[in-house]
Amino acid sequence: MIINRYFYKARHLIGNFFAKLKQYRVITIRYHKLVQNFLSAIYLASTII
């Protein structure tokens, strides 16, 4: 059961991260056409979170 608890905690943490990431409208709508700009926006939002 320890393994299940570990995976649940990791899944919960990742789910919360993506929920916070979706709050940034630029990333969810993906206005940026270039992959480099899109990744830069994700990195910026990740550092803010």
UniProtKB/TrEMBL annotation:
Task: Report the superkingdom from the record.
Answer: Bacteria
Under which name does UniProt file this protein? Transposase DDE domain-containing protein
The source organism is: Acinetobacter pseudolwoffii
